[in-house]
Amino acid sequence: MEYLTVNKTWIKKLGIIPAVILANYVQEKSDNDWFLLSHKKIMNQLSIKEYSISQAKNALISLGLIEIKREGIPSKEWIKINIKKLHEFTNQIQ
Q: Are 57 and 38 a contacting pair, CB within 8 Å?
């Protein structure tokens, strides 16, 4: 059985779906800065609809918590977590 730990501060500041997706990104992140995690895989892991994933991802990008780039043929979406910004965001006084 797999578990996903979600920071309660993230839930309060972002809402449940963006917080869950961010926690999933953090869990999936490898030692490399950039990693792959498709919408299809997220939908299978979390049972979240693609539209909600896109909305949550856009919110995370606008806050500077993640970056997205597309590379390769066929094009794949690469994700990078801005760890410094994530720590600042998590530790802000509410």
A: no
Angle value at C-alpha 47, between 44 and 51, nearest 5 degrees: 100
Q: How far apart are CA 88 and CA 1, in angstroms?
A: 32
Set out the domains of the chain in order of their start, with CATH numbers: 8-91 (1.10.10.10)
pLDDT band for position 1 (cuts 50, 70, 90): low
Q: What tokens appear for 26 in the block?
A: 């953090």
Question: Which among 43, 44, 42, 47 is positioned nearest to 25, based on CA atoms?
Answer: 42
Using DSSP, state whether 18 is helix, strand or coil.
Answer: helix
Q: Report pTM.
A: 0.90
Per residue in 43-65, pLDDT tens? 999 999 999 999 999 999 999 99
